[in-house]
């Protein structure tokens, strides 16, 4: 409501102001009112721009009032016209006469009047104001234009020579509009609006700002349909004042007077306007001089400076023409009578020279009545450019106006005058659209530009006349080669696109949509330029793939350089700059492959390979000095190597994913690999070897200091093995904490080192154990029963060593470990082998996890699959098992042959079997067995008890086969021996709580066979011994299944004269002393 009240109040103030001024000026308060130039009555004056203070001062003094001075005073005191009320509120619905003389403010927007490649700046003064009658509306228009950020388009300046006459963009724009009016007049569409109709029109600003409910600009043709309305739209679009429009229309119509049958578009327009428009039609002299100077410049540029057709015999007249142009310009500074006379005569002479020049033979394929005054193609296309600029919306530079199709159709009428063809039109229009896209970043304009580029025909699609015409269009620009028409317009587009795509990571960081279109622009312009003369195309690559590779190479290098700068400026106190660089490059490649490569791969299937390979190479140059200088696993090495390897693997994954596996393998081999694993492996091996040396030294010290006491009743192993595993596991943890790349070689080295350390531990654990031979007493010499019975000898053979055995004193000299110590050793070794499996599984699990995290692509690098995962500690397993077996054997032998030697080895079956039975040994044997079972861990009990069983059987065989001269056996003792063996068997079976019956039976089978032999008669044994001697020569045994040594020993212990005599005759065995 407040805004509406303010609007009503403002409208009331304006109406009251105009009524009061009209009353003062019409009444007798003013002595005389002098109208400004061009105004007849007060209706022709815009009272809003008359200074009230100036009028009141004149009324007070009763002096002459010059309205032009009142208007000038209004603007001098207010600066620029106060148009804010128009910008804020809708136009006043009161018919306001359109001012024909109001000074124009300085307009800062150059989007219409100047080319985007123009650097010309023009300063306006108060003297220049009258030539911009309607441009006061433009100042208000600026407030309604879209607040769009405009970009620099200087790189897109078309490659055309500059004008020697100094023609400005405003000059070209106004001349282009004059040509448009002339061409429209050729169709009868040129009408000069009357003053009454002008009064009824809304102001041009109101028309420009009038919007429908949907917010779109109201079409200008709605107020005046057909060609008339379209020309009015063009006038507004090209920012031509109504005064200039009317003046030009009237001049063109006057030029046709007396020229019956002459088309308006065949007139030499600048000359005709010079002849038909006089000084009196301008508000002041300076405006006329400026207008006339423009026309003279246009004549010189069009007819003389850039001729498309040679002058021939009329060439000498060009100098005369220049002289006449200079005299016409000079005439304005002569006294009025002389100046007018000189101007008239010069114009007459100018017509005589200019008309023949303009009517030379036609250009290209253009025929008919054509006046070639706008000659030289670059002059033509610069004029056509100004016409094409009218297709853009005045309120939003990034949009096309609603009447674009009608405007383009209207512009075709100028083609005859300007020598425009379809190819030239599409090329110019594409350049205009593309340049406007660059300025506004509006995607719609880019799409229109691509559409126009696609309409430009290739060489083979052009007609003969078109090819000849284009071939003739060349221009020479300083710093450039002689350029054809297409090169002049498309080369800037091509270079701009190349520059953008040469750093697409920076230019298209927001998204790939625009990039895809720019690639299309680059490829289309490139294809068109490739057909142009090779003299200027030597720098273009041969194929699209080559061009794409250039884009990728350039952009990757630029992105790499930027990334390197960022990394080098970053704080590297925590991470090495090569680590940060690898991380950033991986991010770069991820975005590259996900955003840009899908676009570039459409034109280069291996774009991803090119990109990834170049990043690999660039980073490799930076990495190589670091890798070469790495000697130890420092913090920097541990930081850089994993990221470098990860980057390389990511690059290889990209290459593999972008092409077939066979090709990927070939492409990956072409990479100069960083060889991080090899270098890292060497450093890791050094570290592993140093750690393993430390472990080995510690193991040896731990063994030397070990007392073999159990840690606790529950932990019945020694503490040294716990310490060994602790240091081993610490080393393994440190190994896997090294995040550097590794091969299986390093892991295998770790395995072998640990394996060797545990072997050393196992071997050292049994180093102090005496051998079985040291524990067992010497075997007595064989003797025979002392009573002899004669028997014929048949063979003489010695099967025994008659030397006396050593005294049994060795067992007292050697250090024999206690049974409890042996049990702790056994438990310790069992702890070692049981934890070995856990250690091995843990290492393999962590290794597998490490390899999977590295996501290796190179199959050849992962050779761990060829190694069985359960053989890695075979050496230590065998060593530990062998040590355990030795301890078990030692413990059994020690108990039977040393601890129980007296009751078992020395006294069993003495003096006879019946007098000393096995039952007497069960109690001491049970005590020893209980001690073993109390200390040895459960899983080892059967193993140690089996060893005790084996030692017991060895002791029993020792007694019945090598019992010495004090032991004799009769065949009837076999039954008793059998019973004793069963007693021993049941003791170890222990009613099912001991060893398995089958195990015991298998063990005692060998003893049972010997006892069975004791039951045979002497004659049978002798006969079997005789046969056994011959059978053993042939590798067999006797019929009783015994070897000769066993049979001989049984006979030596036989209480029988026959046996004694046989042994004496055949083996010379001495007689027993017992």
UniProtKB/TrEMBL annotation:
Protein name per Swiss-Prot or TrEMBL: Protein unc-13 homolog
PROSITE patterns given in the database record: MHD1, MHD2
Source organism: Arachis duranensis (Wild peanut)
UniProt cross-references to Pfam families, sorted A to Z: TPR_PATROL1 (PF25761)
InterPro entries cross-referenced by the UniProt entry: Munc13_1, Munc13_dom-2, PATROL1_C, unc-13_homologue
Domain (MHD1): residue spans on this chain: 638-779
Residue span, MHD2 domain: 915-1025
